[in-house]
Every structure is written in structure tokens, then in C-alpha cells.
# Entry
Amino acid sequence: MTVTDGSGVPGDDAPPVGPSAAPAADAEQTHALAAAMLGEVMVEIDRADQKASLLIGSLGIAFSIVLSGMLGGSWSPARLGPAGVTLWTAGGVAAAASVVAAALAVWPRLSKSQATGAITYWGQVRGMASPQAVADALAERGLQPPARTYQQLLVLSAVAQRKYRNIRQSMVLAGLAGAFIAVSLLAV
# Structure
């Protein structure tokens, strides 16, 4: 592909555009980029955990308010008509599913240890008998930078994406729950 000089006529001195245009990045630059991106994804995982924790806390407060009214005997969904009870129940199910989705965002998921192959993260040394066994295993099978950085970036990027997907699902379900419950109260 040729770049024009603005007149619509391809220019002889226009820089080439496309994959062949960029000089091949050297290994150090690639590793530095991956390390920077790894740091970014770790920050995003922390942010996602904080958002999910706040969401769980907010939903807990809402549940507490509703349950205190029901347990105090001042209100019951039985006071609603059939349509209201149906909407109330749908709202309750959506609210419970919202809490589950938020909890899944903060639930720790650890990779399964591989019987053989490279050691890529700390969980794979958990069952070793001694510090020397750990040192020997890492010397023999430990994944070294830059390959380890690339592996961590790959795995943690998927973790961050899964956390944010669960948070979005939780928020949508909480919104649906609120809408169902609000409409059920109006359908008296």
C-alpha cells in the first residue's frame, strides 16, 4: 500500500505502510512491552476485584434492607397480586444470580498443576518436599523470562477478562432485579 502526499497522487518519498514498514522489534523491546502489559493486567485484576467486592457489599446492603422488612413482619411479598409475586420472585432470582456472578469475579481460580512440563507459576511448587526440591525443579523445568512473562501475560489477561465479564453480568442482573422488584411493587 502506498501513501499519498495529500494530492491523491502516490508520492515516491511517502513512507511504506503495513507490516513490512515497521522495523522488526528486537527481543528486548518485545519483552519490555510484555512486562509493561503484565503490570497493567495485574492492576486491572486488582481493580476488578475491588469493583466486584463493592458490588457484593452493595447487594448485601439491599438484601439486608429487604430481609429486615420481611423478618420484622411489616411487609411480605404475599401482599402482592399474582403478577406482583411473579415479578418479585423473578427479581429475587436475578438478585441472587447477581451476587453469584459478582462472587465468581473474586473467587480465586488457580491453574491445575501439570504432572510434567515447565513450572510456570507458584502453585506448581506447592507439593514439593523441601526448598532444595523447589530449587532443583525450577533449575530443571522453570520457565525463564521472557517466555515466563509471555505465559503470565497470556494467562492473567484471560483472568482479567473473565473477572470483568462476571462483573458486567452481575451489574445487568442487579439492574434486572431492581426493575422486576420495582414493577412488582407497582403491580399491587
The radius of gyration is 27 Å.
